User: What shape does this take?
Amino acid sequence: ETTLLEEIAPKAVIDIPDIGPHQHFNRPPLILRVDAYGQPITIITAHLKSKRAFFLRDENGHLLEDMDDPNIRIRAKLRSLCMRAAEAASIRMSIMERLHHTREPLILLGDMNDVTGSVTTQLMTETGEVNYDKSMRDVALFDAARIQARYGWMKDVAYTHIHQGMPEVIDQLFVSEEFLPDSKFSLGQVERVDYFNDHLKWDYSDRVTDHGII
Assistant: This one.
C-alpha cells in the first residue's frame, strides 16, 4: 500500500515571502505500509526543502534578485525556512493520523535538511514533548540512534553531511514507541544504527552523493 503526499495539508499551508501559499511539496513524501512477518509497519520517506537560499527567478530560470545583497540573501533563506516548516508540519499531520491511539509501528526516515534538534525536525517528531508529558509517547517519534541497543555513543561521532565545513546529521531515522524496549507496547527494538560517511572526507570528482548513508 503506497501513497504519495503531493499537496501540503491545508492547516500547514503558509505564505512564502514574495511568492504566496506553499501548497505543494518540492519533493513529495512517500508513505508505505508494509507487512513484516505479519506485523504491518508504516514507513514515511521525507526530503524537506534545503536551507539553501531560495532566490526569485523568472519562468526561464533567470535571477530576478541580487544574490550579493545581504538583505536579499536573508529573505531568500527565510523563504526556504518557511517552505521547510510547512512541509514538516504537513508530514506531522500525516504521522498523527497514523499514530494517534494506534499500536502500529511507524518509521520516518530521509533527508530532513536540518539537525535532529532543529525546530523543523522536532515539528515532525515532537520527541522532546515526552519529557513533559509521558502520554505523548503515543504520538512522538524517537531518534533511532539514541535508542539503539548497541553503540549508542556512536551518535556523538556520526555525521551525514558537511555544511559550510561543519559535519552534521541531517539524514535521520525516527521510530515510534513500539520500538522502545522499555515501552509496555514494545514490539521490537533498534539493534544498531550505522553511518557510512568516509566518502565525505575527500573531494571526489565522481562522488555519487554528498550525503552519508544511515
Summary: The two ends are 24 Å apart (CA to CA).
